[in-house]
Each structure stands twice: as structure tokens, then as C-alpha cells.
Task: structure prediction
Amino acid sequence: MKEKVVEYPAVWIAGASCSGCSVSLLNTVTPDIQNVLLDPIMPGKHVSLRFHATIMAGSGEPVVKVLRDTGKELPGKFILLVEGSVPTGEDGLFCTLGELDGEEVTMKDMVKELASKAMAVISIGSCSSFGGIPSGAPNPTGAKSVRDFLKEEKIDKPLINVPGCPPHPDWITSTIATVLLNGLPGENDLDEKLRLKSIYGTLIHDNCPRRGFFDAGRFAKKFGDEGCLYELGCKGPYTYADCPLRHWNNGTNWCIGAGAQCIGCVEPDFHDIYAPMFEKIKESAFDNFFINTKSLKYK
Ligand code: SF4
Ligand code: SF4
Result:
């Protein structure tokens, strides 16, 4: 007997972003992108992706109309996936998604329209989750995270953040799968930054193979040296993600494993406070904790 498959409608819109999150999703290995798009992501459950500017074949007004119709026809039944931050300056004109009836449709207005009607919103990537690089000082476009934008617009909607620059493809697919399998995550499943604890629950520094060097006070002076990369700009002591355990590119390696520092790409402070990437973090930038070379200490 053929298995009954339930369709879960979803739309993916992209604002102020580089499309790297979409590229990361396209690189998913288990399941591969063909499976994600065509097959049930969970037994009996298929995500019906109705709009994705990079993947879909259509263009022009008809596809923008699909966005609007999704909100109208499926209130409370679709998932809104947002990549990129929401530019709010100049009434949103820094970022438009297309035109309808000769009028520009801004990212700002479409996020507002769809978020108010969606079952839940998932912010894909650090720009959508926290503002990211587009919101870096002096932020001329008024770019905001989805969370801040919805708060400002007084739209109260279940929201999950999947930060990363870009997020690991597994983080995107497993977050969607978690929602389909268990429903919306409860308070205890998310951290205060609205990230799934199952992905973002451990400190990079605590699982780093170079941690012994840090504890012994042995620091690399240049890339390629043996030793901890903290003085070369590693933000692992401030960054929560499972990269040391999961690895990237189908388990091949990860940033520190390849000899580079962790730039803290999943954290809200990634773009402003964590820069420059190749310099030791300015510890004075933090008022809630400080670090010494022996161990992390929290005030
Ligand atoms: S500072 Fe970076 S390289 Fe050093 S132990 Fe921590 S995570 Fe690893
Ligand atoms: S190791 Fe750090 S910089 Fe690299 S992907 Fe993970 S969180 Fe981002």
C-alpha cells in the first residue's frame, strides 16, 4: 500500500544576504537536495517548497503572486523560512523581492505580511537570526534581524534561529525535520538566542582538539604553528555550535581542524565585536565575562 504523504507548505525568502545559506542548503549530503525537495524529509512528511528565488524555475510577477497567495490561502499552515536580514531604512526600498501590479514588493513588507500568517518562522543564517554583516555599523540600510523586526512590528510568532555564516546544511535540514517530527520546539529546547540546544548547546572551546594547548598556555604565533589559535583571533571560547563534533563538507573537516580560527559565525556579536577576524578578541568589549589564558572565568 502506498504511504500517505502529508504536505507541509513552506516559502523561503531572502533579504539582505549573500545567498550563502541557500548554497549551503544545496550542498546537503544526507539527505541530498533532490531528496529534500522531492521526497518526504520525514516518513510521510514532505516539505512543499512553494517559493525560493534561487531554486525555482519561474520568475516575474507570477512567482511573487505565489508568495502573496500562500499567506492568503494557507494561513497558519505554512512555514516561513527567511534568509538574510530585513532592511528597514527608506521604508524598505533597499531590498525588494519583485513587483506586483507595477508596485515594488519590499522584503520588509513581505516578511511582515507572511510572518503574521505563518505557522512559524525559521531564520536561516546569522543575518536573519541576528542582523549579521548587513547590520554591521554604521548599518546604512537599517538592516535588522527577523526577531527584532517582528518585535518592532508587534508580530508574536514562534521563531527558531539557525545562525551560521553560512549555517551547516545539517543544521537547516535537521531544524526543519525537528519541527515536522516533534512540532514547534518548547522553551527548554531553545537557548536564549532562540537556537536549538541540540545543535548550539556546546561551546566550541570545550570540544576543541587544541584545548590542551590553551590550558597549558601554548599559543600559536602564526598559522601552521602547533598550539591554540586564540591569539590569532579564535573566538571558540565565546561560540556555541557542534562544529568540532559534526564537522563540515560531509564530515571532512572544520575550521579549526583545517588550521583556521573559529570566527564565531553563529553568534550575535560575530560582525562587529568579533572583528577583526585575525586578531585576538578585545576582551574589554565584553562586560559579562572575561577570559584568561588558563581557563574561562565568568563574572
Ligand atoms: S581558543 Fe580556539 S583554538 Fe584555542 S582551544 Fe579554544 S577553540 Fe580551540
Ligand atoms: S567553527 Fe566557528 S566559524 Fe567555523 S563554522 Fe563553526 S561556528 Fe562558524
